[in-house]
Amino acid sequence: MFELFLVSLLSDFGTEVLIWCVGVLLFLGMVVLFIYQRRQGRELESELEQLGKVKKHNIEYELVLKAMRLCTWHIDVAERTITYDNDYRERNDSFVPMPGTSLDDLVALMADSDRSRIRKALDDICSGRTEEYHEISRVKAAHNNSLYWTEAYATVASRDADGLPKTIVGTSMVIDDRKRMETALVEARNKAEESDRLKSAFIANMSHEIRTPLNAIIGFTSVLPDIDSREERQELINLIQENNQKLLRIIDDVMNISKIEAGKEQLQMATFDINVILDELVSKFVPRVKAGVTLSTQYAAPQQDVTTDLTRVMETLEHLLSNAVKFTDQGSIVLGYDAVSNHRLHLWVRDTGKGVAPENHERIFERFFKVDEFIPGAGLGLSLCRVMAFSLGGQVGVESKLGEGSTFWLDIPA
Q1: Distance (Å, whole) CA 384 – CA 323
Q2: Which domains does the chain show, CATH number per domain?
């Protein structure tokens, strides 16, 4: 009986132990599973965080490309082809090659003067002779024949087993605005240098030109009290007055050029008969022509009304007539105009004087330029004529051959 009780007791105890062991195992399994899930959760969080960083990095990367207006591309060195990955350039006509475009086709789109340099630079980086690529070139636009400026950077991204470049990555950007700015800066610098040169030339020339008549005035004035002969005194007085007029004309020319170029003198428009004005000019210059030279007029109409600035027209024609009188020793000087055509009046002064060599036709209108340094004058008259003609909406020019006389003309709106 006791034995049956003992067997029953052990049987019940074994069942409890078994149940307890199973419970412990289940608990341990749950703990292990919990730890595993926590670890998996942390790994997932880490991966999500990395994914977020990558996504953020891609957004920032794209933002940089957009802000810099760049396009990115890569070259397959083995195939010698280029593929554009992203393009954020502003120009709608920028060249974007199809994926797998050959480098030769790419180089063919460069400006003629840039092709050999770009081809060599690409060959150098593809062959491993250089590590980086940086070139500025002009590229043909996609839809027309215009050219735009582009700047490209590239470097080796991967290499093969022999260490030779396998893939090259690069960026390009359109730099038209920068090139325009550079051009503007160069032009501004050149203008500043030219302005400085002209200032120095102005000071040198004016000091010489003003000193010449001034020395004559001072010299003749100093000896005038010692001259007893009335004829000699009058001759000296005439020379002093002549040099006074030369000095005044030099100063007037400089002042007129400065005022017109500064825009401080407005046009005073008036309507007048040009025939009357030309007659007055001829009457004024008749006493100045040299012996054996005739001064006459030739009009295309008995009356020709013109609406323009009378003062500037007269000053321009006075300078042209003065030059003709100065350089014509024999023959004739004719002042006239052609029939009005397309609402423009073509006036001219034709002489039989020394003439002007073709290479000097433009230079004589520059400031202080003198074909003959021995002829008096500051070399400002024709320069002033051009400035005044431009202010009237016209232009001046010359037709001449050396030794065959000259025809200086003024073309203005009628």
Answers
A1: 13
A2: 68-174 (3.30.450.20), 183-264 (1.10.287.130), 266-414 (3.30.565.10)
